[in-house]
């Protein structure tokens, strides 16, 4: 039983560690994506002709570009977080199934041992009479 408790504790610590790694990777990927997109958008805007800037309002252009980049970042990080979260849930579920099977087996063994002890003590009582 001590081994089982240790296994459950180890799984919980591992799950917490993976959650931390997932958050860090998600932030890293998201920020990297934003940097790359902003760099590409800036280069693209710099190649536009002067007429483009006379027709477009600068504030509107910057706002639209910024919101598109942020939207892309949120989409990628939420999908990444969802995939990793579902993977962690699957691993946790599989580990829980293994623990449940072991508990079931140990409970069965314990019941059989209790029955054997009970029958042994009854046999001793019968012989004493």
Task: Report how far the terminal alpha carbons are from each other.
Answer: 38 Å
In helices, the fraction of residues equals over 70%
**Overall SS class:** mainly alpha
Radius of gyration: 31 Å
Largest sheet: none
The whole-number mean of residue pLDDT values reads 81
Write down the secondary-structure element order: HHH
Number of strands: 0
DSSP helix count? 3
- The domain count comes to 1
Gross morphology:
rod-shaped
**β content, as a range?**
under 5%
- Spans of at least 5 consecutive residues with low confidence: none
Give a brief outline of the structure.
Helix content is 95%, strand content 0%. The chain is mainly alpha-helical and 129 residues long.
Task: Write out key terms for the chains shown.
single chain; 129 residues; mainly alpha; 95% helix; 0% strand; rod-shaped
